[in-house]
TrEMBL record:
This is GLPGLI family protein. It comes from Flavobacterium chungnamense. It comes from the Bacteria. Residues 1-19 form the signal peptide. Keywords: Signal.
Length: 200
């Protein structure tokens, strides 16, 4: 009996460790920090997202790059983790060129989402968007949980949610299943307003 109970506890513990987070687990964040982004879509429900793709960290492209090599303007509009050991850059694709007190954006069609592990001098490519989708906003829920939210570009522009899990070392993309959930207004992150940028 004792062995059975111990085995049951072990199985439950393993299931908890390997449990897959879903967008609905972050409803509080979507009603507070991500509320403005969420409201750019009609008929938005977190229960209507399905897992589209999951990638393990070991399969992500990474390289030894010092955080110091990233231009200062991207550090201003990018997003640090709570303890400042990690940083997410979603804006390098804007190719900002300074002109006086303003910046000119020469936008690249390919948006790459890069994670910097600052003390390790490591850059990891979390997502490559191409022309089919774009990431609009970044939210560190905790040091070990990161949300990337964006738009899928097709006949109907629909929301996408990506959960980056630093405990299970996975990047999981979720797509929306409701054809009536579509973008009604374009989202612009307030982080962009920290710089004067022309061309966006």
């Amino acid at each position: 009996m004792l062995k059975k109970n111990l085995l049951l506890i072990l199985l439950v513990s393993l299931n908890l460790i390997n449990a897959q987070d879903k967008p609905n687990d972050y409803s509080k964040n979507f009603n507070i920090e991500l509320k403005v982004w969420k409201n750019t879509f009609t008929n938005f429900k977190l229960t209507e997202f399905k897992e589209e793709e999951k990638t393990n960290f070991k399969d992500l492209y990474s390289e030894n790059v010092s955080f110091k090599e990233l231009n200062e303007e991207y550090k201003i509009i990018g997003t640090y983790s709570p303890n400042k050991t990690k940083f997410v850059d979603i804006y390098s694709y804007l190719n900002l060129e300074k002109s006086g007190n303003t910046y000119e954006a020469i936008i690249d069609v390919d948006q790459n989402i890069d994670l910097y592990r600052i003390s390790e001098n490591k850059r990891i490519r979390l997502v490559s968007c191409g022309s089919s989708k774009g990431i609009d906003e970044v939210l560190w829920v905790t040091e070990k949980k990161l949300l990337l939210v964006g738009t899928q570009y097709s006949e109907i522009q629909k929301p996408i949610i990506i959960i980056v899990d630093f405990e299970n070392l996975t990047v999981t993309e979720f797509s929306n299943t409701n054809n009536n959930c579509k973008q009604k207004t374009k989202y612009k992150s307030p982080k962009i307003n920290k710089l004067k940028i022309k061309g966006i």
